Each structure stands twice: as C-alpha cells, then as structure tokens.
Amino acid sequence: MKLPHFVLKLLPILGCALMLSSSGALAALPPWVYDELKSKAPEKLTIKVLSADVTDSLIVTASGTRGCLKLEVKQVCAQAEVITVDRSATGLKPGSIIQIIYTTAPTPENVGTAVRPEILDEGMIRRAYLKQRGAGVMPDNSAFTFDETYDVAAWGQSFEKLD
Questions:
Q1: Other beta carbons within 10 Å of 77
Q2: What pLDDT digit, counting tens, does each position of 5-54 carry?
Q3: Quick one: which H or E segment has residue 135?
Q4: Are 130 and 158 in contact (CB under 8 A)?
Q5: 105 backbone φψ class: left, alpha, beta (φ>0; ψ -120 to 50)
Q6: CA distance 152 to 143
Q7: What is the per-residue burial (b if ≥16 Cβ within 10 Å, else e) of 42-54?
Q8: Which residues contact 45 (CB under 8 A, 6 or more apart)?
Q9: Are 44 and 127 in contact (CB under 8 A)?
Q10: Domains of the chain with CATH codes
Q11: What is the spatial distance between Cα 105 and Cα 77, in angstroms, rounded to a whole number?
C-alpha cells in the first residue's frame, strides 16, 4: 500500500509529537500523579550538584491553527554527591558520587502548564527523586550498564529546593 505524499511529509512531525506527548513533554500531570511518582521513586536523596552540562538535543517545530510551536529539548548531564539518603534501592550512601542524565524543555506559551524537571547547576542542593537507568546493548552487541547513572523519577517534581 502506498501512502499519500502529504502523509509521508507529516510522519516525522507526528512521530516527534507522539514521542514528546508520551513522555509527558507536552502535557501537565495532575498533582496526585507527582505525589505517587515521588512515593514510588526508588531513590529519595539529598544531593549537591558538583557539575552540570546542558546541551540542546532536539528542536521540534510545528505549525497549526494557534501559530507556530517550537520546542527546544535540552539534555542535562550532572554529577552530584549524595548528602543524605531517605531511601535507596541501589544502596547509595552519603558521599556516593552519581551521574544524573535527563531531558527537559521550557513550557511553550500556547501549550499549558506542563511541569518540567529543573535544569541542575553546579552548587545546587536538592532533594532528588531518581531511578537508576537500565542496561543496554552497544552496536557491537557488547552489554553495558549505567551503574551510577540515574534519571528523573517524578518528571517535573524530581528536584525540590530545600528550605
């Protein structure tokens, strides 16, 4: 079956929109969902950010009846020291050094009130709700794991300022 030409042109945009919407990038979550995500997060820690590197990883542009939407997705790679541990499924202890890798994006004006993970910066001290990144396979079929690499577990509320 041959697809119409206009459908082929829309496939990349639809794919990006689906990817972003399924990851919560374009939709706000109800408050109770964040509470549940935080309570189920395998790692609840207090961290001090030692370094952070932010890079643009994707720019999505789409136009519609409300105008043009441009979403600049950023990848954050931070190194942090664990200060205190409330719970840790992976056995982290105070003094452990971990890497946190996640993506975030500013909320476009015409999308609503979606909450994004804060961009970490050197010197910040935050309560962090994290999950360990999984294992994978390299292109040469060798296995790898992210032993001390973590991802956000409560999306936009994964990092809380401490009083």
A1: 15
A2: 444 444 444 444 444 443 444 456 788 999 999 999 999 999 999 999 99
A3: none
A4: yes
A5: beta
A6: 23
A7: ebbbbbebeebee
A8: 82, 83, 84, 85, 86, 88, 92, 127, 128, 130
A9: yes
A10: 28-58+74-161 (2.40.50.120)
A11: 14
